[in-house]
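Final report, results section. Input specification for complex C-07:
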Amino acid sequence: METLFAALGLLLAGSIASLLCGRRAWPATIIGVGTACVAGGLGLYAAIQALASGQTVTYSRPWSVPGGSLSFAIDPLSAWFLLPVFGLTAIAAVHGGAALWPERLKYNLGSVWACYGLQTASMAVAVLARNVVLFLMAWEIMALASYFLVVLDDEDESVQKAGRLYLIAMHLGAAFLFAMFLLLGRASGSLDFAAIAAGPAPSQRLADLLFVLGLIGFGTKAGLMPMHVWVPEAHPRAPGFVLAVKSCCIVKMGVYGLIRLLTMLPEPQAWWGWSLITLGAISGLWGILHALTQRDMNKLLAYSTVENVGIIALGLGAGVVGMAGHSLIVAVLGFAGALLHVLNHSLMKGALFLSAGSVIRAVGTREIDRLGGLARRMPWVAVSLVVGAVAIVGLPPLNGFMSEFLIYLSAFRNDETLSTEFAIPAVVTVASLALIGGLAAIAFCKLVGITLLGEPRSESAENARQPSGWMVAPPLLLVFGCAVVAALAPQLVRTVAPLGASVAHLPADRVPVEVEQLASLLARIIRVAGTGILVFLVLAAVRWVLLSRREIGRAGTWDCGYAQPTARMQYTGSSLVGPVVVVFAEMLHIRSRVEGARGLFPAAGSVQTDPADVCLDDIYTPAFGIAGRLLKRLNWIQQGTTQVYVLYIALTLVALLVWQLGPR
Amino acid sequence: MTIESLLPPILALGLSPLMLGITNRVKALFAGRTGPPLLQTYYDLARLLGKGAVYSRTTTVLFRLGPMIGLAAIVTASLLVPFGGRPGTMPFEGDLILFAYLLGLARLFTVLAALDTGSAFEGMGSSRELLFSALAEPALLLSLVAVGHEVGSFSISGLHNPVSGISWQVSAITLVLVGVVLFVVFLSENSRIPVDDPNTHLELTMIHEVMVLDHSGPDFAFILYGASVKLWLLASLLVAVVVPMHSGYWAVDLATGLLGMFGMAVALGTVESVMARLRMSLVPELLVGATVVAGLALMIGYGGAVR
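Structure output:
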């Protein structure tokens, strides 16, 4: 605990110090990146220690805030979520320091790094907090600090709009959380998590209501569809390291909140699991469909985050169904798969966002269809992008496969151990995971294939250079982490499975047999994968021996006899996903504008297509339009003078007094 | 891992080119030709392995890695598939997922190698292959899960287990439906008529063939060989599920398995001879239909459990 407080103190001190540096870029960057790295190291050390010991350490002091107490605790669940919070922010900070350096005259780096440190600290506090007031306070600071990072380019109108959308989404989500925590606190008579969990169980109807409120509130943060709209919209223009932290840590806070809520509620109903699985399947499928239509690299990655949160929700849903059906192994598999995917997604999405950030910094555009041929120009960035893509599509032998395997297995075991009415969610899980996997392959073939391979489609791509080692190394470190996690999967599952059991209100000592079985299954996967790598090495040796004494020719790509192929004739990302868009046309919303090229003697024409978000365009925009028109009628309340607002406060107090003291 | 347990992959690696030869001979018979020798694929492989290579100036190291990773993934997948009453070499609970995803890995790198050339034709092939395989994946997994539900095991080798194995008396409907689905997946994943035509000669109409246009020499040999092993594996999966016969004598079981594979080769040749290709826009409907049938098989299985 002391180590964690030291890390938090360091982050806050670093924030203040870099704020004081203001526009002096050197000291601000050194302090910001340095404190992120040192605090990250301390935090990781404490988290790993807590995971290894499996113990819970608590710290509690009274606090003058009503209902609040300075209660902190680190248990394995918190420690697991601290891994991405501290690890990823440290690695992303190095990339960010290098990425922002050329823009040091444009941005106030002091305030950037102050917000960055504050954001990391608030995430850590949210994970460690064991008191509702403390938790919500950290939750709000996290939203605000990340808001200022999103609107870094605040002179741009679209960025301002995106920032507003982000702020609205965060506060709507938080409103549900306030309602939920107030009801929870009223039912148990305390705002401390421990007292809530130990207190009298809320009635079934209240528990159902609490779950729904929590699902919406935390689901908004997690980016579950249809509450996901802020994830892709708040993104595109922010630098890669901000987006990496947003996708890998902030979004995961929503997942953490959901799991923590489950530990505080009484035994769940089966329909809680079904709703999680439904939302998970919708987020997964619709998210990846939206992802593959995007032309903007960052938006593609952001929608893929929605997809991966969907996969996590499928795991959580399986866990809850297992709890409700009293099947130990299904619950453990579901939660373990979801938790492992949290870590995995942080590693691979971090690597992808940081590499994409390097690409964008080098070419100055986020548009996939304007790039190409970057693999020759920035080979190491290409390595991290390709390996990250293989991992996120969930292909063996990397880590994405391991967590998806656990979630698949939870669906299979469901079949063996639960009665038939629990089986339908399992079918949904298998079918949607399979389809998600196939569609994710398309999305990432587009991202990798069109940006890195072929011939450059624009001048800026033609002249791109590999950025400095400070930007190249962090994503490489993260993809190396992907391989390490895959190789250590059996050990990790021994850590994560008891964690899942504790979420499921099951004593951790009942799980060892099942866990050993799981670990041996994963060890077999690793053995098969190792054989595969061996086969690959043999094939490489065979090819090398065969070709070493022979003539290797160089020629142009086969062009079917066409005399003058140009780079613009290559397949673009949009054409690559064209057939998919046709098949799934009903579920997507592509705005297209066709101009000219009519009549007998057509002039030059143009076609423009824009992928739009179905939820944002068809649900939220009209709904908020109506709400705005209705609320306009209350405009007269807002007079804009302080005296009037003081009057409102006084009137409210009087009304409350009358209500309290008046006749009953 | 014993020497005996290596029999299924050894057969797959050794005999799969022969299966292509039989199919081509059947097609020739239908067309009234003599056809190429049965061992033609072996000759082709030997010839390609003996050649040098030509690489496009556009390509990177990914283009060279593609065929090797693709073949390595398929060879690894061959360790999971049972044959002739024997379990796979490295079977485990849930290996059917690893099997499907290993094929996915091979496909991803084939596609990336194709995009590496910058050719519009190869992009077109990639686009189609990606879509069709994404739609075939749920069909494959759901149908295997349907059998797994009947058998109570989620290992490919377990689907073919002599003790708990599935039988035609108990689950005929599931077996018929799953057989149909697996046959559709077998045709589609191996780029066969009615989804794709391995003999088409126009780049615009190709799917799989167009993606590998630029490969030559040993690289192309790897691709050709990988495709034939994949054909064998998916066929033996179908045979293992639909012919769950166990005599107890290893020679009889092995002969049954080989006969089943011969039957698959003939069936494939027949389908390719008597059917025309589907219009490209109809292929998704075929695959989604297969997925729905697989879901139906699964539901019938669950219905049986309720009863």
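Chain A touches chain B through 79 residues (CB under 8 Å). The mean pLDDT of chain A is 89. This concludes the modelling results for the funded period.
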